[in-house]
Amino acid sequence: MRRSRTRHAVLVLVVIAAGLASRRFPLLLPEALGKYPGDALWALMVLLLWGIARPGWPVGRVAAAALATSFAVEFSQLYQADWINAVRHTTPGHLVLGSTFHAPDLLAYTVGVALGAVLDALLLRFSPWSRAPASPRASGAGADARRPA
Hints:
The protein is mainly α. It has one domain (5-128). It contains 7 helices and no strands. It has helices at residues 5-24, 36-53, 59-76, 82-88, 91-97, 104-126, 143-146. Helix 1 runs antiparallel to helix 2 (36-53). It is globular and about 45 Å long.
């Protein structure tokens, strides 16, 4: 089964909008969640991007790549050279790279990737967009059906 790149691209846009909204309107979410919904959505977006880049990969491999990417970005925040901090001080740089290492973010990324993996598995299983094209044998039309009568 292959993922639909179009569907995943639309989902990326939806997740970005939801993530930005979670930061812009934090009062709409329980205060106890803090900024973590945005972090989980960021990791979900990373999972969707891996699904676009590698539509034929199994869900577990996409999830592992997304979690590794998310963790790598978080741990990269321990590196504080002037040049990377200048990038992080731009809006796109901050949205992609973050700014300060915060270990609890790793849990939020794990939750986002786990939820995304479940969603991805469900989409692959039940979405007609993700189904492999039927082979002639699967439809009952074998080699005989291709021969002229």
